[in-house]
Amino acid sequence: MSDVQNEIPCLEPINQQKGASASMEEKKITPEIKKQLLEAAGTDNYFDDEESLLAHSYDATPIYQAMPEAVIYARSTRQVSAVLKVADEHRIPVYTRGSASNLSAGTFPLKGGIVLVMTKMNRLLEIDEDNLTATFETGLITKDLHDAVQEKGLFYPPDPGSMVVSTLGGNIGNCAGGLHGLKYGTTKDYVLGLKAVLPNGDVLETGGKLTKDVAGYDLTKLLVGSEGTLAVITEATVKLLPAPPYKRIMLAYFDDLFAAARTVSKIIAAKVIPATLEFLDHGTIREVEAFAGIGLPTDMEAILIIGQDGHQAVVDEEIEKMTQVCMEEAAEVKVAENDEDAERLMTARRAAFTALARKKPTTILEDATVPRSQVAPMVEKIVEIGQKYDVEICTFGHAGDGNLHPTCMTDARDEEELARVEKAFDEIFEAALALGGTITGEHGVGLAKAAQLEWKVGKAGMEVMRGIKKAFDPHGILNPGKMFAEETRERVVLD
């Protein structure tokens, strides 16, 4: 399991710093409103005991926590509609939550209210082999869909590091990517249709199984990546692909960090688009090997994990071409001898975050993304910034699509160090933007990056998004406090 924070540190001071639970005076769920919610949700699905509230007061993002007033487990679209009607009438915040594995503080209940948990709506409704689609409830675990379609000889490419625990609704809400993003794209490229409940309880159905559909605005694409701020998505239809018949994995070891980063661009320049092109720096290699024990060379400064799939003749030819490119700067290149070796390598990559998270109580994983031609300068800037602020930053990620995950191991109880970490990541985001990149490639904005969102989209972009939010959610009950920060953080002036 990766991309999941395993430890929530020291909650009391964190509450004061990053999020506060609603006080008794701020509580909005009166006995009469509770009665209405019980009728809407069903008594078996409504919880307001202390243990349930505490368990749903945080997500996988370190530092952030706030207490809700109620937790409701969704069971059907009709039930979600009934709950939202009550919440909208009484202006009660609603925070939709799947497995809470997100890393942008996107699902914790900043302003109290209701946490609406989707994990019980987890049915795979249909695999349509004629139209190559799958339809499911959004509480379905990502890997469960992968396994089900694989049995049919089909393939659903989006595969975030957290796929063994993350829900597909969370993937859709954050437009998740994964290890196959370079060749196959991200979640937005596969969602064809949605069933969603608007804040007033109306049910909206968008798209369908059609490959072509230009009837009006593309509301499907608008809802993908909306982070629970516009509607509660209850069902989705996604397109599938035939499973590739043949796969190979190779490793390239580098004793120069920047040589590895340069090689990423050289592979793409050679007119090869690998299915997987992953990057691990020295610190990540060391921790992954200590965690997984698969024989990675801990004396190397960087490793590229490169995979290709398709027809055997083409795959073999392209693996050979990529081997030649890597050998221009790599210390050693190895090709996995069998499927078991290949799977072991990919499992190790997915374990990167978990391995790093063992080092210190708080692990902050970020999501700076640049054009792939700028991977080398971006890696160089991350190293410089880590040294400047005297913080330990390890970097891994989807180098083939420029999506790097600089990861800082720290301790939230050390306020002075945490302040340095915050400044370091501000500079990392600024560096990414200066290189033509973005502040987030697949983790979303949530609250964690709300203050920097204007850096990327500008004032005009923020106004357009606020207008869309107002049109969908006029009373502002869905995931309030996320994406739209009260104040934009001042941009960093880099030397």
Descriptive report:
The protein has 495 residues and is α+β, with helices and mostly antiparallel strands. Among the domains are: 11-117, Uridine Diphospho-n-acetylenolpyruvylglucosamine Reductase, domain 2; 131-242, Uridine Diphospho-n-acetylenolpyruvylglucosamine Reductase, domain 3 (2-Layer Sandwich), CATH 3.30.465; 245-358, Alpha-Beta Plaits. It is 35% helix and 19% strand. It has helices spanning 11-18, 31-41, 50-55, 77-90, 142-150, 168-174, 181-184, 219-223, 257-269, 282-292, 312-326, 339-350, 352-357, 375-388, 415-434, 453-472, and strands at residues 46-47, 70-73, 94-97, 114-117, 124-128, 133-137, 154-155, 191-197, 203-207, 232-239, 241-242, 246-254, 276-281, 302-310, 332-335, 362-365, 393-398, 403-410. Strands 15-12-14-13-17-18-16 form a seven-stranded antiparallel beta sheet, sandwiched between helices. Strands 5-6-10-8-9 form a five-stranded antiparallel beta sheet. Helix 2 packs antiparallel against helix 4 (77-90) and helix 14 packs antiparallel against helix 15 (415-434). It is globular and about 70 Å long.
Structural class: alpha+beta
How many beta-strand elements? 18
What's the overall geometry?
A: globular
What fraction strand? 15-25%
Q: Could you give the order of strands across the largest sheet?
A: 15-12-14-13-17-18-16
Concise description?
This protein has helices spanning 11-18, 31-41, 50-55, 77-90, 142-150, 168-174, 181-184, 219-223, 257-269, 282-292, 312-326, 339-350, 352-357, 375-388, 415-434, 453-472, and strands at 46-47, 70-73, 94-97, 114-117, 124-128, 133-137, 154-155, 191-197, 203-207, 232-239, 241-242, 246-254, 276-281, 302-310, 332-335, 362-365, 393-398, 403-410. By secondary structure, the protein is of the alpha+beta class.
